[in-house]
Specification:
With about 325 residues, the chain is of the alpha+beta class. The protein has two domains: about 15-200, Jelly Rolls, CATH 2.60.120.280; about 205-315, Homeodomain-like (Arc Repressor Mutant, subunit A, Orthogonal Bundle), CATH 1.10.10.60. The protein contains twelve helices and twelve strands. The chain has helices spanning about 15-20, 135-140, 160-170, 175-200, 205-210, 215-225, 235-240, 245-255, 260-275, 280-290, 295-305, 310-315, and strands at about 25-35, 40, 50-55, 60-65, 70, 75-80, 85-90, 95, 105, 110-115, 120-130, 145-150. Strands 9-10-1-11-3-6-12 form a seven-stranded mixed beta sheet. Strand 4 (about 60-65) and strand 5 (about 70) form a beta hairpin. The longest helix has 23 residues, at about 175-200. The protein starts with 13 loop residues before the first helix and ends with a helix.
């Protein structure tokens, strides 16, 4: 006989569980010390999340086609989907492409940049990070192009105390300081996402709301956890605790597509990550995604992403 579950703690909803599981892969962190006037033109970073943390001074962040946003000491700017943007001392400053700047690498993941000028100085920690789960990357696509946190407005906030540690470590750059800065920057990214989800009205609609739904959330969690399972509309409805017709209607209304269409897209996203991050033979990836041949897989992949799966593997391993 099975033992009944006597744990009195409520199970977290799927969105909360997702946030608790978020993990980042630190791609690159840059500690800057720049005196105005200065401007940096940053390219788009597909599949990556960017964060600018103003430790001292002020700057402007400007997304392509949008007005600049001023950041001051203690403020953070998060660009969830790596959109092209400029970071600059003022809107009139000349923008220099990132690849033309003379940065000093201190390790594989950490570098510094100093720009001298006659004007006020600004110290900014800039991070380029990636979520190590496809689900985390999926979450980023549902966030706005830019999220700004005004940490400077709350002297007692967790942001302020975290920034104080980062600022101290960046000034000293003592042994182990790089690890402290990169780890705390990861924490700031995740906490900014959590804060936005908790406070913004737009986080209560679409995919994010579906994850919170007591029925749809169960089905989505099962689908995400077991994408290789032979799911049907009936089995997903059973997982959600709804009739087939009610589940189908609610799913389409909430997410704008059928459950089976969503399942297909989810499998293809997992396949794309496998092509990029592993050397698994393509036929195995195709079969895991539910396709009986590489040709069928390739056609579906190209419909979804606009390019063949082989291009992803070539980009991941150009040699």
């Amino acid at each position: 006989m099975s033992t009944p579950n006597t744990d009195p703690r409520p199970r977290p909803d799927p969105l909360t569980a997702l946030l608790d599981q978020l993990r980042l892969t630190g791609t690159l962190y840059c500690q800057t010390d720049m005196a105005a006037p200065w401007g940096i033109a940053l390219p788009a970073f597909e599949g990556l999340t960017l964060i600018a943390i103003v430790l001292d001074g002020a700057c402007q962040v400007q997304l392509e086609g949008e007005a600049p946003v001023r950041l001051e000491t203690g403020d953070l700017a998060l660009i969830p989907n790596g959109a092209r943007h400029d970071l600059l001392s003022d809107p009139e400053a000349d923008r220099v492409p990132l690849d033309q700047l003379d940065v000093t690498p201190l390790s594989q993941r950490y570098e510094t940049l100093t720009l001298d000028g006659p004007g006020p100085r600004a110290r900014i920690t800039y991070g380029v990070v990636r979520f190590d789960q496809v689900l985390g990357a999926q979450l980023m696509t549902h966030l706005p192009k830019l999220i700004v946190s005004r940490g400077a407005q709350d002297e007692d906030s967790w942001i302020t105390s975290t920034l104080a540690i980062i600022a101290r470590e960046s000034e000293q750059l003592s042994p182990g300081g790089e690890a402290v800065i990169t780890r705390l920057t990861d924490v700031l990214v995740i906490q900014l996402v959590r804060s936005w989800l908790a406070t913004e009205a737009s986080a209560q609609t679409g995919w994010l709301a579906a994850l919170r739904d007591p029925h749809l959330g169960r089905a989505l969690t099962a689908l995400h956890d077991q994408p290789q399972r032979d799911w049907t509309l009936e089995t997903l409805a059973r997982e959600a605790g709804l009739s087939r017709s009610v589940f189908a209607a609610r799913f389409t209304e909430q997410l704008g597509q059928s459950a089976i269409s969503y399942l297909t897209q989810w499998r293809l996203h997992l396949a794309r990550r496998a092509l990029s991050d592993t050397r698994t033979p393509m036929i195995e990836i195709a079969e895991t995604a539910g396709y009986g041949s590489e040709a069928a897989f390739s056609r579906a992949f190209k419909r979804q992403f606009g390019h063949a799966p082989g291009a992803v593997r070539r980009d991941a391993d150009p040699a």
